[in-house]
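Researcher: Sequence of N-acetyltransferase domain-containing protein follows. Predict its structure.
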Amino acid sequence: MALPTIKIRPVETKDQRLTRFLVGKSNMECLAIANNRAYFYPVTLAVWVALSCVFVEFMNWWPKPEHGMYGYLSPVPAFVSMSVPIMFFCDWLNRSAFETRTNDILHRPDLVDIPKYYSRSPASGFWLLEYADRPIGLIAVDASLDATSDKTVQAVKGEIQYKRGTSSVATIRHFFVQEQYREASIQQDLLEHAISHALQSDKSVQKIRVSDSPLLSYITKVLKEAGFAVEEKTGRIGILQWQQCTRSLDRGRWRKSSEQH
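Model: Prediction complete. Tokens:
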């Protein structure tokens, strides 16, 4: 029996709908992580315990030893019920920012016609990572003349005109690996593939930049290992105001790292 194969291949026209779905999924994953961290934040836990105790007092649900072992469980419904509005409140505060950001990303011109957009520069590329012919990740590096632009396209009327050429600064626009495959560090191979392609295909590219978030620790880890350094702090997002940043890797640092390996 043949073992399942893993491969990195370019996104084709037939893959565009699935690719957009994975891009949206990868960005909305941040919302789930932000919510989970907000639930277990010390202030949130303190509010939950305080409100639950008030509810227990109001309902007179304090433990009743005279009812035996089950009497000690009488406060449990209060604690469970008070967790629901707190979880809803955290999601309500977080959701708007993450949905807005995801919507902006999905409306950028690189996702209108993926093969056409990423064919404008030899250093650009959008790849799917497949395991047993099933997509489990993706990465996109944009080295076109629009590589540093984050403009969105709200409505497409007719054909978008793309300029050909290569920028000195490339941008990793999308980077995602499904959770169950991250322990194998397969994201490192995906990142190395994108970096090598961008810097070896066109010597005009002198630097690669990428947005980083503390909510996606598996990406932060592999970026640091590849030599990406913090270039600037960008905005904050979410109820706990997580600091976003831009990391970059220049050609000199990449060459030095390659020689060491």
